[in-house]
């Protein structure tokens, strides 16, 4: 089977939303380091290689929103589609205490190969999907409950945003009204980086947007993924309605 760096669900669905999953897979394409970054399979199954559970949430959420979804099909350790091309962390050499052997000595030619094979085709497809009229982007990610040597993270969900807060603020209000949730406001990470996926496909075009981080132990299985998609869909719709956009 021919390798594809992305997949799309529901391209013809009419909903305004576009649900994106930048870190959907832990795939290493066969033309990148022979399909093996030199890590133990247990490491490739960890959060360092992809966002655990995010793809399942994305698929179920897009279906509920009657909207298209796009998924990467390469590990963020191959090249990170949620970084700008000039970002120094585009090819990670060390992640959460783990050295990435195939990245330690990756040169400019290897970087360009990965950009051409994986990164740019994914972003080209995302550009085409986002160009539909009145698109609203929601990007789904997941985070590990605790990084090595760090304190446990208390949030079940985080809402990330930059200078465009039109969707993020009503979403935060609605999530905080859910009494069983500890909600991160630009946590466990802060905002966006220049040139990252949301900046490139939403902020630079004035499209309403939000990035949602879910704690990965809550969405590690299909039941949890479906539950969170079912919970988020009406909240997102209500938040969008409140923006009057």
Description of the molecule:
This protein is of the alpha/beta class and 245 residues long. The protein has a single domain, classed as 3-Layer(aba) Sandwich (Aminopeptidase). The chain is built from six helices and nine strands; from the N terminus they run E-E-H-H-E-E-E-H-E-E-H-E-H-E-H. A seven-stranded mixed β-sheet has the order 1-3-2-6-9-7-8, with helices on both faces. A two-stranded antiparallel sheet has the order 4-5. Strand 7, helix 4 and strand 8 form a beta-alpha-beta unit. Helix 2 packs across helix 6 and helix 4 packs across helix 6. The termini are far apart. The model has no long low-confidence stretch (mean pLDDT 96).
- Rg over alpha carbons: 17 Å
The number of distinct structural domains comes to: 1
> Biggest β-sheet, characterized?
7 strands, mixed
Q: State the shape.
A: globular
CATH architectural name: 3-Layer(aba) Sandwich
Report strand %.
Answer: 15-25%
């Amino acid at each position: 089977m021919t390798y594809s760096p992305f997949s799309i669900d529901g391209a013809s669905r009419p909903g305004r939303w576009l649900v994106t999953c930048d870190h959907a897979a832990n795939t290493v394409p066969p033309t990148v380091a022979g399909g093996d970054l030199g890590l133990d399979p247990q490491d490739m199954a960890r959060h360092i290689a992809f966002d655990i559970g995010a793809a399942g949430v994305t698929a179920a959420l897009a279906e509920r929103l009657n909207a298209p979804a796009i998924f990467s099909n390469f590990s963020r350790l191959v090249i990170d589609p949620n970084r700008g091309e000039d970002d120094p962390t585009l090819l990670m050499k060390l992640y959460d205490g783990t050295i990435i052997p195939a990245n330690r000595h990756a040169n400019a030619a290897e970087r360009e190969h990965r950009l051409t094979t994986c990164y740019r085709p994914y972003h080209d497809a995302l550009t085409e999907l986002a160009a539909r009229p009145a698109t609203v982007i929601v990007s789904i990610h997941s985070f590990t409950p605790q990084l090595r040597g760090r304190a446990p993270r208390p949030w079940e969900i985080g809402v990330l945003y930059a200078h465009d807060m039109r969707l993020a603020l009503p979403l935060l209000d609605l999530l905080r009204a859910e009494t069983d949730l500890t909600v991160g406001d630009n946590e466990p990470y802060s905002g966006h980086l220049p040139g990252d996926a949301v900046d490139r496909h939403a902020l630079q075009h004035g499209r309403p947007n939000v990035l949602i981080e879910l704690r990965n132990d809550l969405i590690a299985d299909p039941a949890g993924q479906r539950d969170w998609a079912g919970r988020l869909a009406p909240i997102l719709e209500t938040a969008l309605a409140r923006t009057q956009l």
